[in-house]
Each structure stands twice: as C-alpha cells, then as structure tokens.
Amino acid sequence: MGSLLTVSLDAMGGDHGLPVTVPAAIASLAEHPNLALILVGDQDKIREELSKHNYPDSDRMQVQHASQIVEMDDKPAQAMRFKKDSSMRVAINLVKEGRASACVSAGNTGALMATARFVLKMLPGIDRPAICGLLPTIPGFCHMLDMGANVDSSADNLFEFAVMGSVLASAVNNIDKPSVALLNIGEEEIKGNEVIKEASRLLSDSQLNYVGYVEGDGVYQGKANVVVCDGFNGNIALKASEGVAKMISFKIKQAFTKNIFTKMVAVLTMPVLNSFRKTIDPRRYNGASLLGLQGIAIKSHGGADVLAFKTAINQALIEIENRVPERISEQLEALLVNQREDV
Amino acid sequence: MGSLLTVSLDAMGGDHGLPVTVPAAIASLAEHPNLALILVGDQDKIREELSKHNYPDSDRMQVQHASQIVEMDDKPAQAMRFKKDSSMRVAINLVKEGRASACVSAGNTGALMATARFVLKMLPGIDRPAICGLLPTIPGFCHMLDMGANVDSSADNLFEFAVMGSVLASAVNNIDKPSVALLNIGEEEIKGNEVIKEASRLLSDSQLNYVGYVEGDGVYQGKANVVVCDGFNGNIALKASEGVAKMISFKIKQAFTKNIFTKMVAVLTMPVLNSFRKTIDPRRYNGASLLGLQGIAIKSHGGADVLAFKTAINQALIEIENRVPERISEQLEALLVNQREDV
Q: Which residues of B, range 91-150, sit inside 8 Å of A by Cβ?
C-alpha cells in the first residue's frame, strides 16, 4: 500500500455535492489503481451515498467527518473565520498534515483560494497564488493563468505566473520549453498598459521561452502553450469564451430543430456533432490548479458533473506524480540563479 | 436631392482597400435611395475601380482625392502629424466641413480614433470617446463599449460610456429604456475592483436602467441591451469571443471532413449549418461606432469583405437618421439636470 497516492475531496462542495463527488470518486478509483481518496464531509451522508453504490469504506476510500459546509455565496473571510470544520477546510488540512498529497474542491473559489493560501502557505519566492486552467485550442490545448485569483497584478506577479505556468506545462505535458505569451489587446509592442509592458521586458530578459503578446483569438489558435494575464482579464476572457460556446451550441440546436427536414438531418448529423463536441467539451478540461502554494489544490467548476469532477481528480493525481509545487520552486530558483549570473 | 444623406468613405483603408470599399459603396447606393457617398482616396485608382463595375461619378457617388494612406501599423501620432492628406483624414474632414454627415473607415483603429477626436472634437460633457460594437446574443444582440479606445477608464468614464451606449441602443433599436450592465468577474456585489464598484454606485443612482454586473457568459445570454467595460477588458472579451467562434467552426469543419460518411452528412447538413452561421455571422455585426464625438464616425473591421463593409455603411446611415451625437448630448444634459434636482 506504500505506493498509493492520496487525494482528499471536499465531498460536499459545488452545486451538486455528494451525488456528483461520490460517483466520481468511485469511478476514479476504478481507473487509477495507485489512487486513494479521502472523502471529507458529513460522514453519515457520505456513507449513505456510498451504500447507494454498494461501495464500502476501504484503505483506498476513507471517510473523514467535517460538520460544516462553505456555501457558494459565503465571503472568503467569513468562511475562514467561522467555518473551521468545513469539508473544504478539512480537505485542505489533510494536505497540510501530509495525510493527502492533494485536495480537490468544487466549492466557492474565493474561499478555497483564501483557505488554501492560509493553510498551505505560499512557496518561497512566490508573492501570490494564481488559478491556472486548461483551454481547448485549434491544435490542442493551452494553460492560462491567472483566471481569477487576483483582481490586479504587478509585472512581478505576471512574471511569477509565467514561471508557474511554464513549470506546469512542462511537468504535466512533457513539453521541453513551453512557449509563454502575455495576453494583450494587440500584438504590436506599442499596445497595452504599463504593467504588461514591464512584464514583457522581464520575460524577454528571462530564460523562459517567451514569445511575446497574444490576443484572445491567438490563444485559441494555439500560439502559446502558456498564456499569462491578470485574474480580472483571465476571468473575463474565460467567461466570454464560455458564453460564446454556449450561444453557438444553442444556435446550432435551434437551426436543427426548425422544421421536420432539419430534424431529420439532425439525426444523421448527431454522431458528427458529438465527435465535434467532445473536442471542446469543457468537462474534459475541468480542474484548475491553484499554483504557488506549498501543496496541490485543484478547483473544480462548481457546476461539474461526474465526468468533469473525475477529470479534476485526475488532474490532482497528475500533479502529485509530477511533483508540481517542488518543480515550481526548483525552476524559480534556477531562473533567479541565472539572472544573478547574468548581472 | 435635398433629402440625401451623405457618408464619406475612407476608400483606401482596411486590409483590402478599393476591391472591397467600391463594390460595397455601389451595393449600398442601390439599397438606400436616400444615401449619397463620397469615396476618398487616390482618385485615379478609385475611378478605375468604379469603371470596372461600369459605375460613373454622380451626385450620389462622388470622388474626393487624397494622396496618402494610413497603414495598419502606423502609430496614431505619426498618422496625425505626417499624413494630413490621407484618405482617412480627408474622409473625417468632410464630416467636420459638413459635406458629409458621417464617415466610415476600415483603417487603423488607433489612428482613426485619434484623428476623429482631433478633427471632430468631443461632445461637451464627455471626457473620452468609446468604441461601441454590436454582439450577437442568444435572444438577439447587444451593444458593448468600450471595445478598445481606452486602455484604462475611471468610474466617471464608465458612467459616460453607459450614457452613450444607452442612447445608441434607444436611438438605433427603438428600445425605450435599454438595460445597462457593467462587465465584471462576478455578479455578486463583493467582486470586482474599486473603479467598477464606484461606477456601479454612479449607475445605481442614475436614471439609466442599470441592471448590475454581468459576466462574459451573461453578455451572450442577452442579460443587458448595453454592456459597459473599459477598453482593455472589452477588447480582451471581444477577441477571445472571436477566437472561440473561429475554433468551433474549425472543429465543426474538421468533424465533417473526417471520412466519406461524414462528408456525405455534410452535404445534407449544409443548409442547416448555413442558417446557423448566418445568425452569428460577424459580417452582419460589422461597424463599430466611435461615440462621444461631435460627428458620426464608424470603424469597420480591417478584414471586412463587401458584405461586412456594406453593413458598416448602413450603420452610419442609421446613426445619421437617428441623430445619435445630438441625442447623446441631450440625454447627458437631462441626466445631469435630474441629478442636480435630486440633490
């Protein structure tokens, strides 16, 4: 049993809670023989949900009681102060105590970020954590950060995000020198505000594979493996992208249900449209990494279903196997040594 | 001839220039009997292009010579200083001189913005101009501003954008009290930075139909007629949206060309997919308004084709007919009077 990698799950978090987290946990254990899970939350309710699936406690499926739940509209400070026995907090505590190597939550993003930062602490040399997500692109996918941990960031913060994103891409996707771009409103050097220009100078002078500015459409053309931006812009871009994708699938559905002819065509087209949908299915990209912490914490989309939550658990496992926090520290150290040698 | 409404066109601007602007001009005149156009640029080349279409000069299709062209990568200040006889500048001058009631250009956005502001001047009470574009949404469309005229905006600027967008929506689309929202990273009151919070307070206290914050996905769900944001975020959202739409249409094409079966399905599906594409065709939404100026200036997408450029000319005509600049002044005045009465 020594080779098991343990992930703690905030079993109560998200829009759906146990009906999603428990089946996702069961499916994940079936897929990954080296995975163990600790389900954190109301132990009676968790066991009831497990018994619905005829699934007993085991070494690989432990239950850890927590009496409180962080609600989606709780303010981060309130959650930290008044919900010290929440499923979210206890799941993170398990990582701090070394009983789990990573935690996953579909709960309140702000509370998760604040709690993870407070409990796990920042990596030395990193000023602020960032939320790093995976986006589909024409050639494949890219990592984008920050997606909303910070509402405004300095040039130094953006530089740190670039380091963290670069490490994640190389560790998780075996990309040797991941290309890194800054999200901006134009690719020309003259555009953008002072913070972005300064960040661009820092990145140009670094050992990172910095490829310059990228606009929103360049992101989806796959112009970089890692796209760096402040949390406000990252979140705006992410949500606008989600909105367009939803609108397009609504309009496609509308076009196919217009009349009897289009409905007949729809039946024939279904397999093709399904194969297309799979390539941009957000559930296959679920599980954003909270980077910059002394530990691994994964944020699942609040509305995640079983498949999506399973993807987030998988992301946690990949980051454990690839020692992501340790590698961020090492890379940061190496970059700083290089910079000192350059001087 | 007294009832003709005249629009000046920067005939040389954009990625394609005359092969797009001239056919679009001819088609626009055929569609709108009350429209007259002044084509501005190299007169020999314009007449050559017109003769290809067997189209003579007339009262409704005049040619105005301009010896220079603003390139897409010219810096705004350089264009202003060294290209005083550019097709863009002369087209704007014609509005200032009263020979045209609006101008349209597919040229360099920064140069167009700077030149229009310098020549036409701001409306009294408006601090900064904004670029207002039309976006498709699930129920129809919405106006979004600023899309990139300013890289950072104060709360007062955002308030002015809201007034201008609201006037445009009510004047152009006959919406009585257009709903106005602020683009933010969350709908909860606690989120967002200080500028947005302050703008939200200003809008809540105003006579505008302010409906609160909206996220990127809410924009496409049609939660507001007018979405207000600073130019950086607006541009990020716009470009990300374009990127996703392009990626999705690429992936759809890919799915339909996979093998002989999918290709056969594609033939059947074509009419349905085409009717879907029409509803989100960016060419049908081309023509962003430069608002806040003492005159009407329309920015066409640089890559516009004939249909798209014709849409931009149409937008100019609609704004003339609806006296958009005058109505912005009136509405601003009315809002300020109401505020004074409230005190």
A: 136-138, 148
pLDDT band of residue A149 (cuts 50, 70, 90) is confident
Structure tokens at B297: 């200036």
Is the pLDDT score of B328 beyond 80? yes
From residue A261, how far is each of A243, A251, A255 by CA, in Å?
A: 29, 17, 11
Per-residue pLDDT tens over the stretch B73-103: 899 999 999 999 999 999 999 999 999 999 9
Which residues between 275 and 294 in chain A have a beta carbon less than 8 angstroms from any beta carbon of chain B?
Answer: 275-276, 279-280
Q: How far apart are CA B81 and CA B115, in angstroms?
A: 10
- The pLDDT value given to residue A37: 97
Return the axis-axis angle of helices A231-256 and B231-256, rounded to nearest 10°.
40
Nearest C-alpha in B relative to A237: B237
CB B34 within 8 A of CB B4: yes
- Pair of tokens at residue A231: 């949390």
The CA distance from B183 to the nearest CA of chain A, in Å, is 8
Using CA atoms, how far apart are residues B61 and B23, in angstroms rounded to an integer?
Answer: 12
- Structural domains in chain A plus CATH codes: 1-123+292-324 (3.40.718.10), 127-283 (3.40.718.10)
- The arithmetic mean of pLDDT across residues B263-288, rounded, is 79
Judge: B217–A233 Cβ closer than 8 Å, yes or no.
Answer: no
Rg (CA), chain A: 21
Residue A252 sits at the chain B interface (C-beta within 8 Å) = yes
- Asked whether the beta carbons of A255 and B276 are under 8 A apart, the reply is yes
User: Scanning every residue of chain A, which has its alpha carbon at the shortest distance from the alpha carbon of B149?
Assistant: A185
Report pLDDT for B189.
Answer: 45
Measured torsion, CA atoms of residues A168, B184, B163, B207, in degrees rounded to the nearest 10 = 180
CA atoms of A221 and A42, how far apart (whole Å)? 45
Q: Considering the entire predicted model, what is its pTM?
A: 0.86
Q: Is the dihedral of CA B45, B50, B54, B60 positive or negative?
A: negative
Which has the closest alpha carbon to B136: B217, B215, B222? Answer: B222
Nearest CB to A183 within list B217, B236, B275: B236
Q: For the stretch B169-205, what's the b/e string if a residue is b when 16 or more beta carbons lie within 10 angstroms of its beta carbon?
A: bbbbbebeebbbbbbbbeeeeebbeebbbbbbebbee
Mention every residue, 6+ apart, whose C-beta is less than 8 A from residue A166: A178, A180, A208, A209, A225, A226, A331
Provide the Cα torsion B285, B288, B292, B294; round to 10°.
-110
The three-point CA angle A90-A94-A96 to 5° equals 110
Tokens of B94: 């014609």
Interface list for B 202-241 with A (CB within 8 A): 215-221, 229, 231-233, 235-241
Tokens found for residue A198: 């300064």
Environment class of A261 (CB within 10 Å of its CB; exposed 0-12, middle 13-18, buried 19+): exposed
